[in-house]
Amino acid sequence: MPKVSQEHLDARRAEILEGARRAFSRYGYEGATVARLEEEIGLSRGAIFHYFDSKLDLFVELAYADNNRYVSLLTEEGIEAVLRAIAGADRDWLNVLIETEVRMRHDPELERRMAGMQERAQEEQRDRLLASFEQAQAEGRMRSDLELGDVVDFTTVLINGLAVRVANGDPISIDAFVRLVNDALRPDVRELAVPS
Amino acid sequence: MPKVSQEHLDARRAEILEGARRAFSRYGYEGATVARLEEEIGLSRGAIFHYFDSKLDLFVELAYADNNRYVSLLTEEGIEAVLRAIAGADRDWLNVLIETEVRMRHDPELERRMAGMQERAQEEQRDRLLASFEQAQAEGRMRSDLELGDVVDFTTVLINGLAVRVANGDPISIDAFVRLVNDALRPDVRELAVPS
């Protein structure tokens, strides 16, 4: 296949995904009918489903890309960068993601697909994440008196909690928030543990 | 009304609420039909709706009581106590609460009722919460270099993020988690801000 064709295919896929994200954000997953997907994407259902097998495929692909982007931010720029990204993320899209977590409990097919996505993500991303935290510890940028897994869990809770807040439309002073998180993880906080 | 009667009424209300909580936890809000509420509560619909106007009333009352209980824990025993309570909370019930936050966006009546509940909660609770944090600062148990509102927001994000994690059924080492939170808020962490 000539290279220009592959580029064209990739661009078309990206265009479809962006339109689908707009449709999901605007109407929710259930409310994003095929007619509305066509309207937001600007292509016929025939063209859309030539590239993706189903609406669920579109959604899983978007959720996977999001997850990947946040993990990349986390490993390449650190926790502060990902918290700031969440604080500035689209409220409606975050609501769709949170809604999906909830719907999974009543929808075995969705749960199966999301679990498959998370497994795929974990294989690719978990090692990267642990390696970047290990490096932060080795370089003295992060406390090393805690298990890496516990730091990962803390970070995940912060990200999810912040996503819920942004999705609810509640404001937050992200500078103060980041400062508290940085203080929790700074390497010299350990020295305070024993009163002098 | 004689006192014994009021006690009886209160006990009956509490019994109905506990049965309703079991039904919501087991079937979700939508899935908790009147027949299932009757079965879990062990009373007829006539008896149940003599005490509460509707299923929504039952739910709002339970959500309000939960909210109140966590705020009391927070003000009386501190952040660690509430985080440990969330870590040990019922997974299914947390899912119902999170599900409701999501459903509110598509259900104006639910949103209106929950907003009313939150307003009632805020009037009663917000001042208590700020007063307890202020006291913690005054007694040197909490850093005082941040706005109280920012500490409240940080705490809310932690609680919501932890609730999402427990609702998902993902394990967490709560001791390590609590230690990170305590370190973020300890009064002497400020001294670390300027390198010596």
Q: Write down the oligomeric state.
A: homodimer
Shape of chain A: elongated
Poorly predicted sequence stretches spanning 5 or more consecutive residues of chain A = none
Percent helix among the residues of chain A?
A: over 70%
Strand content of chain A: under 5%
The two chains with the largest interface, and their residue counts, are: A-B, 40 and 41 residues
Order of helices and strands of chain A: HHHHHHHHH
**Biggest sheet of chain A, open or closed, and with what strands and sense?**
none
Rg over CA atoms of chain A? 20 Å
The span between the termini of chain A is: 70 Å
The strand count of chain A comes to 0
Average pLDDT level of chain A: 90
The number of helices of chain A is: 9
Explain the overall architecture.
The structure is a homodimer of 196-residue chains. Chain A starts with a helix and ends in an 11-residue tail after the last helix. Chain A has helices at 3-31, 34-41, 45-51, 55-77, 79-87, 91-103, 108-138, 148-168, 174-185. Chain A is elongated and about 65 Å long. The first copy, chain A, has 9 helices and no strands. In chain A, helix 1 crosses helix 2 and helix 1 packs across helix 4 (55-77). The first copy, chain A, has 196 residues and is an all-alpha fold. The interface between A and B is large, with 40 and 41 residues.
